[in-house]
């Protein structure tokens, strides 16, 4: 079994639905990578959900002026984990921030000192989570083929930026992490 804690970032309908303004075009490929990773982590998995704040403050006001469709309550359909993962998500962490490195996630990852990240979007919530966790002294592995970005270019750019943080952050693949051929 793989060491560390797996955080599956924002595998939600708002990023999976091609009609959504926030759709990640390669969501399906990222979801396939997540499926490969889950068995290796057993119960050491947290799924996160991005949700809108009840009342945006500060710079978030301008953000939601740009994306008013997203100002919906936490139980709105767009914030649901996709059907494929909802039943598997025994540990779900909600956050109204891009980064998911919250005290709750820190408490889960800290004992092993390693956080493995997968999900969407690479160039936003995954990146924000990776850098905050690295700053906290946690070894971060970002599974490139279990992530998806706003587009292929932003995904690749975010991976390059995160890889600049070696050895704090390391970009890897599911095959490298799991130590075997594609299943």
Description:
The chain has 183 residues and is an alpha/beta fold. It is 37% helix and 20% strand. It is built from 8 helices and 6 strands. The mean pLDDT is 94.
Q: Concise description?
A:
The protein is α/β, with parallel strands linked by helices and 183 residues long. It has helices at residues 13-16, 27-41, 60-66, 83-86, 103-109, 122-135, 152-163, 174-178, and strands at 5-9, 45-50, 92-95, 114-120, 139-148, 169-172.
Q: SSE string, helix = H, strand = E?
A: EHHEHHEHEHEHEH
Q: Judging from the principal axes of the Cα atoms, what is the shape? A: globular
How large is the radius of gyration? 15 Å
Distance between the termini: 15 Å
State which percent range the strand residues make up: 15-25%
Strand order of the largest sheet: 3-2-1-4-5-6
Measured as a percent range, the helix fraction is 25-40%
Oligomer: single chain
Total helical elements: 8
Mean pLDDT: 94
Total number of beta strands: 6
Sheet with the most strands, sense and barrel status: 6 strands, parallel
- Uncertain parts: none
SSE class: alpha/beta
């Amino acid at each position: 079994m793989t060491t560390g804690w797996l955080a599956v970032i924002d595998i939600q309908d708002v990023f999976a639905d091609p009609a959504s303004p926030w759709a990640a075009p390669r969501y399906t490929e990222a979801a396939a990578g997540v499926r490969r990773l889950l068995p290796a982590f057993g119960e050491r998995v947290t799924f996160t959900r991005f949700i809108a704040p009840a009342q945006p403050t500060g710079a978030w006001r301008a953000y939601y002026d740009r994306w008013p469709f997203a100002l919906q309550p936490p139980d709105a359909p767009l914030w649901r984990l996709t059907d494929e993962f909802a039943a598997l998500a025994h540990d779900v962490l909600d956050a109204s921030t891009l980064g998911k490195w919250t005290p709750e996630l820190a408490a889960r990852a800290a004992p092993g000192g390693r956080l493995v990240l997968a999900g969407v979007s690479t160039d936003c919530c995954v990146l924000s989570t990776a850098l905050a966790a690295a700053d906290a002294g946690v070894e971060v592995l970002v599974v490139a083929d279990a992530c998806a970005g706003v587009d292929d270019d932003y995904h690749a750019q975010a991976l390059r930026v995160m890889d600049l943080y070696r050895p704090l952050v390391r970009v890897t693949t599911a095959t490298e992490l799991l130590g075997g051929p594609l299943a």
